[in-house]
Write a structure and sequence with these properties.
Blueprint (H helix, E strand, L loop, with lengths): L3 E4 L7 E2 L2 E2 L3 H6 L9 E3 L3 H7 L6 E5 L3 H8 L5 E5 L6 H14 L4 E5 L13 H7 L2 E3 L3 H9 L14 E5 L2 E9 L1 E2 L9 H5 L5 E2 L3 H13 L5 E5 L7 H13 L10 E5 L1 H4 L4 H5 L3 E9 L13 H10 L3 E8 L9 H11 L3 E6 L7 H8 L27 H19 L2 H16 L5 H17 L2 H8 L3 H18 L4 H20 L12 E5 L5
Parallel strand pairs: 1-5, 1-6, 6-7, 7-8, 10-13, 13-14, 14-15, 15-16, 16-17
Antiparallel strand pairs: 2-3, 4-9, 5-18, 9-10, 11-12
The protein binds cobalamin (B12) and iron/sulfur cluster.
């Protein structure tokens, strides 16, 4: 019987700015937050997703070494399918394909993931790579792989995905991921993911399928919350409202346990009342702030400050992404832009340089105006902190410095993200504790549970706070906590001391030479019967 090997690229993974590029929280969402940046593991979602939706038996390798990969390939697979997650991995993918051709020349090579966009360019040996592979997926991968192996394209899609994990002060929090759709119609000129799907939204799950899988995750206690993939989940209000209706009418699950998040934009969120979304379990959103001066269509609608304020008040955490290096940025206006982001007080943030990506309108513009630093261009420098094109007035070093400055300002003014998370839950609790509906009362209980869970971090933040301002915020939050929930229990106080001791050890460990942590190797079997 034919069989498939699915794999990520091989270890070790590079560090960007001293932090592993595979760590979503430490390297991005809570960067520059000293000991308060949690570590995280993120599964290679597409591989698990595709493996369970084809009829052929398969093996999924996550983060093998090159040697482990070689041993597996030598077993003789009909297809070797590589998750080319980012073009940064170009050299690794090239090496893996050369190795497949040596060890198992009969195997068909399949590439998929956003990284494949590099194949259309001509900087390194892209032609050699393109010449070695049999199938390249530029788009949705489940149906693509079904077509490659000859399965019916439109069978139902399963989504039993391993949870992601966040590690902090010896604690572990799991969260689940679900796929609703890929691509986006808004067509922002810099956006890699919408360009990849040709500015169309490719729907993968109906509201019912999405809710049934989320409900399964909740009842199995697989994770504390569910992240929904859809580049702008709120773009189709009828879809969101149907999904909400299913949640509301389901008596098996209390709102106390429903906690989900997704990407949104100012324009699409302006069509919803935060309370309406809180009532169906929304607890986090990712909003592209991009810049105060941006006139992107997705930024039109309510004032972004109002959006931030009203959602944070409703207990919804916000990941705010922000870009340094727009053409209109200069050393005079950039500080104003940065302070504007700091004032919005996103719970987590992604601050990056403007990264033109092949396939986007921005890439085309940069190429046409000869602004790509093409002579020394290498895909290994292609990431969210690089500067691969010239800016009208800022140098590459300016941009690197400004990215770091923004991350530090967010930390100095607002404190660690985990503290901001506590604040948002407290705000949510205060808003809903006196609610008149039973559902929103349950929502208040969800916030209370998180406040109690996060309370022990306060002492450590107070001791290691980046300044007086944050210390004052912690004092205020502690008083509010006591006013709402009474004096913390003996257990909570003990846990606070444990966190503090842990933090001291972490601080001391900073004096030791640091190794870049590598994600663990995993080998998973799928028998094809699931499809
Ligand atoms: C989660 C995530 C991560 C995670 C996990 C990555 C992983 N293990 O795969 C972490 C934090 C580790 C990460 C790191 C990085 N990431 Co990242 N990441 C994402 C993010 C947000 C979601 C990807 C995802 O899982 N989506 C859900 C799955 C189900 O959808 P999907 O990936 O699109 O997969 C579908 C298809 O693409 C296709 N497909 C995908 N793989 C395969 C493989 C095969 C064989 C086939 C047939 C099909 C197929 O089928 C799937 C189902 O339809 C995307 C942005 C986004 N909004 O999508 C950026 C994104 C992929 N990351 C990006 C970058 C640049 C990075 C970093 C370099 C970080 C940095 N600081 O610069 C590093 C590199 C390491 C890495 N592994 O990617 C870029 C890649 C752009 C490019 N062309 O290079 C993206 C697009 C962000 C962006 N807008 O620029 N990332
Ligand atoms: S709204 Fe977001 S996902 Fe959609 S095109 Fe713009 S940046 Fe991309």
């Amino acid at each position: 019987m034919r069989k498939v090997l699915f794999t990520t690229v091989y270890r070790p993974f590079p560090a960007l700015d001293g932090v592993s590029c595979m760590d979503l929280y430490a390297s991005r969402l809570s960067k520059e937050q000293d000991i308060f940046a949690p570590a995280s593991y993120y599964p290679a979602l597409p591989l698990f997703l595709i493996a369970q939706n084809i009829s052929l038996p398969s093996v999924v390798l996550e983060h093998p070494t090159l040697e482990q990969f070689r041993e597996e390939v030598a077993k003789g697979y009909d297809y070797v399918a590589i998750h080319f997650a980012a073009s940064l991995f170009y050299e690794k993918v090239l090496m893996m394909c050369r190795l497949i051709r040596q060890v198992s020349p009969e195997s068909k090579i399949v590439l998929g993931g956003y990284g494949v966009v590099c194949l259309s360019e001509n900087f390194e040996q892209e032609k050699e790579l393109a010449g070695m592979v049999d199938h390249v997926c530029y788009g949705e991968g489940i149906r693509f792989m079904r077509e490659v192996v000859g399965d019916p394209l439109d069978s139902p899609i399963k989504q039993e995905l391993p949870p992601a994990a966040i590690y902090f002060m010896g604690q572990k929090v799991y969260f689940c991921n679900l796929l609703s759709a890929l691509g986006c119609r808004a067509g922002c000129e810099f956006c890699a993911t919408s360009a990849f799907f040709k500015y169309k939204k490719v729907r993968v799950a109906s509201p019912e399928e999405l809710w049934l899988q989320m409900k399964k995750n909740i009842l199995a206690k697989k994770g504390e919350f569910n992240w929904i993939y859809d580049e702008d989940f709120f773009q189709d209000p009828e879809y969101v409202r149907e999904f909400g209706r299913l949640i509301k009418e389901d008596n098996d699950v209390s709102l106390r346990d429903v906690s989900w998040g997704g990407y949104g934009s100012v324009r699409t969120l302006s069509r919803f009342d935060p309370e309406e979304l809180a009532d169906i379990g929304l607890t986090s959103i990712w909003i592209g702030v991009e810049s105060k001066f941006s006139d992107l269509p997705k930024r039109q609608g309510k004032d972004i400050k109002e959006i931030f304020h009203s959602f944070l008040d409703a207990g919804v955490q916000i990941v705010g992404s922000f870009i340094i290096g727009w053409d209109f940025h200069n050393l005079n206006n950039i500080k104003e832009d940065i302070e504007y982001l700091v004032e919005l007080n996103p719970t987590f943030s992604q601050v990056s340089s403007l990264m033109p990506c092949p396939g986007t309108k921005l890439w085309q513009k940069v190429m046409e105006t000869n602004r790509l630093n093409a002579r020394q261009f290498k895909w290994k420098n292609f990431h969210l902190y690089s500067h691969i094109h010239t800016h009208p007035s800022l140098t590459g070093d300016d941009i690197t410095h400004l990215v770091r400055h923004t991350q530090r300002r967010l930390y100095q003014e607002n404190g660690p993200s985990l503290f901001r998370m506590f604040e948002v839950h407290l705000r949510g609790y205060k808003k809903f504790k006196g609610a008149t509906t039973a559902r929103l009362k349950e929502r208040a209980e969800l916030h209370k549970r998180w406040c109690l869970k996060a309370y022990p971090i306060l002492l450590t933040v107070k001791v290691f706070a980046p300044g007086k301002k944050v210390r004052a915020k912690v004092r205020k939050a502690t008083e509010e906590f006591v006013a709402e929930f009474g004096k913390p229990s003996f257990f909570l106080r003990l846990q606070s001391l444990f966190f503090l001791a842990y933090a001291v050890c972490l601080k001391l460990s900073r004096f030791l030479p640091r190794r870049i942590p590598q994600p663990k190797f995993g080998r998973y079997l799928y028998n094809g019967a699931q499809a």
